[in-house]
């Protein structure tokens, strides 16, 4: 992934899903990966008045999307499932993503304060999350 591809992905997803998911006012979260902090990407967010959540370096323990990806991966590859084509895999990923329960996502979201406290207690080190 480079900054141009990331920008294309973000701009398509923002126009398609952001307002539907969170309403008109939202704060976008991303980490400090090079593609996320590229000038062209920063410019896109500034031009479109999209606020970015300030994110500390090396803080994967806070981000709940890692848990979501893990849940999704386990569902997609349950019982050792293998795929015969990329399209078959994509279809399964889409189906499993749509099945993901909002209760699970809400529970993860509610865990963020505990995650932050745990990171502070561990001086920025790894946590159980």
TrEMBL record:
GO terms for molecular function: nucleic acid binding. InterPro entries: RNaseH_sf (IPR036397), Tc1-like_DDE_dom (IPR038717), Transposase_5 (IPR052338). It holds the Pfam family DDE_3. Residues 8-90 form the Tc1-like transposase DDE domain. This is Tc1-like transposase DDE domain-containing protein. The lineage of its organism: Eukaryota, Metazoa, Ecdysozoa, Arthropoda, Hexapoda.
């Amino acid at each position: 992934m480079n900054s141009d591809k990331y920008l294309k992905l973000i701009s398509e997803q923002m126009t398609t899903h952001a307002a539907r998911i969170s309403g008109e006012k939202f704060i976008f979260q991303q980490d400090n990966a090079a593609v996320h902090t590229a000038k062209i990407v920063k410019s896109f967010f500034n031009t479109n008045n999209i606020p970015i959540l300030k994110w500390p370096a090396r803080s994967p323990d806070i981000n709940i999307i890692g848990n979501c990806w893990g849940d999704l991966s386990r569902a997609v590859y349950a019982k050792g499932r293998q795929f015969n084509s990329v399209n078959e895999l994509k279809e399964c990923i889409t189906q499993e993503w749509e099945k993901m329960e909002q209760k699970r996502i809400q529970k993860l979201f509610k865990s963020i304060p505990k995650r932050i406290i745990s990171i502070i207690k561990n001086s920025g080190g790894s946590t159980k999350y």
